[in-house]
Structures
1.
Amino acid sequence: MIFLVTTVVNANDVELTPDASGNLVLTKEQVITIANYIKDLEEENSYLTAQVEHLSNSLESERQATQKIIDETDEILGDLKSPWFTEIIPWLNLVAIGILIVRIW
């Protein structure tokens, strides 16, 4: 589970106040609050980027493992369809019948 802690800047934290000439300005504390918020967002972005990288690598590993299993299964199925295997099946049936007969005795 991932927990992210972020600072939220709300309208009360950055309320603009007019200066003597009527221009709206931020106080030093408000600028610091916004700068800290931006820093927190950058840290969260770095963390999430690292998580994406890790999950992408994990996904690629799982894809490779799955492809290997598919290839091995295809190889086994190919062996089962080969002519020598289809010729040996009747012999295997005879062996199974022989084992069953021996077991009954």
Note: The two ends are 62 Å apart (CA to CA).
2.
Amino acid sequence: MIKKNKIRFAEVLVITILVMVVIAVASVISPPAKAGLWDDLSNMGAPTVEAQVYLVETSGWNVRIYQWNPPSMPGFTCMFGAGEGKGGMTCVQNPSL
């Protein structure tokens, strides 16, 4: 009886370790895990554009506004607003540029 329980325990232990190894390997090679690395590699060498950041207090929400002048669109100012799970962007002509 004791020998049978030891064999059963060993089988469960081996299966548990194999499952943990498969999960660990899958998490290392899965695309979501590489998203940060892909962003870093795909944006390597891209110029950085200075942006102004504003926090706008609204009723119960804190909205962040990013504003910049894109070099590829002279005479335009772009703004991106980010809130709780939502965001939006617009670019408008800026005659003062």
Note: The two ends are 86 Å apart (CA to CA).
3.
Amino acid sequence: MSADDVYSSSFMAEPSGRNIIYLQGKDLAAGKPEKTQAPPASNLGEAYLQMDYKHEGYYAIGKINLRPMSEVTHGQLPNVQLWFNFENKSLTEN
């Protein structure tokens, strides 16, 4: 899965090296993040995922759209990020 500046432009905004993507605590084992809208030309629309994240440079919690790397290679070629920091969301809700 990847993030890019077409579907997740705010996630890619600098500084972004320490952005944290939150894993849903209750569904962590089942791997059930929210589905998000894929473009009509996508062959893998069911693989697009939306998750909450905390941006290194902002206070608010945002939404990131992750999509398969293969979906990034056609059409408009965006900047892509493949390396992420994850955290269990239930641990941050105290």
Note: The longest strand covers residues 49-54.
4.
Amino acid sequence: MARPEQMVGTDGSLCIVQMHFLCAGVAELKHVHSYGHWFHLSYGRVSLLRKGVYEEYSAPVIVWIEPNDPHHIIALMDGTVGCCILDTRDPNVTKFLDG
């Protein structure tokens, strides 16, 4: 399965991971973090697994993803763009970014 193109920007307190889903069906693989974060859908439509349920979202929308909640993002429209917004002051985020 194809994955979205990603760009990462960070400063002293935030990290933004932008995902560009070139085609419908492109997906960010199911994964889980020990920290919560925001998902901002700025363009397009996605099916987002969160809290064990897939829900469809259309831009613009911002969705909170709870810590330890497995999530999966599937583009439903070509050219969809979304961003995960992380608080880098959380030590668990820092560990994630360090690799």
Note: The mean pLDDT is 91.
